[in-house]
# Entry
Amino acid sequence: MFNSRIFSIIRKEFIQLFRDPRTLAIAVVIPIVQLFLLGYAATSDVRNIPMAVWDQSKSPQSRQLLDAFRAADYFTIDHFVGSTDEYQKLIESGKARVALVIPADYDIRLSEGQAKVLMVLDGSDATIGATALSTARLVGQSFATKILSEQASLSGRLAPSAPVEVRTQVWYNPDLNSAYFMIPGVIGMILSFITTILTATAIVRERERGTIEQLIVTPIRSWELVLGKLMPYVILAFVETFEIIIVGRYWFGVPVRGSLLLIFFTSGLFLMSSLGIGLFASTIANTQQEAMLTVMMYNLPSIFLSGFFFPLQAMPKFLQWVSYAIPLRYYLVVIRSLLLKGVGIEAIQSEVIALAIFGTVIMGAAALRFRKRLD
# Structure
């Protein structure tokens, strides 16, 4: 009798589960998504680091050095520049993570055994910076050893010192402190999680309790209802952003080099996307549980594919292309550039435009669907 009662309860729960195919599908899909994301995205083996080169020598010897960096398979030479300002702008905008500066007398100094080149590294991403730093030193040592062996075979004697020295400079985060990289990312993660989850569940909670119908029959307009429901979470998100910046600055020592006004402006653009996704989830879900699972289907990939935990350069090309559809990717570039590099809006112009487009489209579509559901 006892076993039959348990069996009846189990049967009842399965019937209820299969009567809700949306929740069942999400429960089945999420583990698969986690498996692929963790299998491909969860790696710190950084490769294909974009490099800018200022080759003032333009000699066969300098081309040999560049070939050595290409052969290392850690760097991709994407930009050739002609001044310090050019590679500085590339590093500030994130288009280059490394800049290699070869002096004009490199070939002459190399023949004398005293050649020196400069490697400038972007330390705002501690993982990429550390990999680039160690790899640059190894490439320099390997190339110097190769030159030494060639000189020894020609002259029959070894040079007293390495003919090539790679000097490194780490910008924005000289100590490669991981907190400098993580704290700005936490701002994006919290803004994304808090706003999407609270917005989606708050509106669905009104529907579950039946109070949404009471609001509909009042003279309030649909856009006023949407705005009134979203504004508290906008204010809460800005308060939390301010809190994280203050704690990060005075407890963890994370610098705040950019304009606070620009930080809050770009955060507002990002909030439009997060709030829109939460609002859209509320139009799909009928219960708070469904709303939570629906939002999780968005938040989970966005965290892994935005560059918050793992460098985008370490991911397969397919996942890198998918990441362009995630607003958090652009916001992390913006907030890290503003806090650590102190750049102006011209350096993050493309990311700001992307956030504005995402925010307008997502919020517009979500508000339109929400209004139609009210009607």
User: Anything to note?
Assistant: The mean pLDDT is 80. Residues 178-209 form the longest helix (32 residues). The chain has two domains: 49-171, 177-374. The radius of gyration is 27 Å.
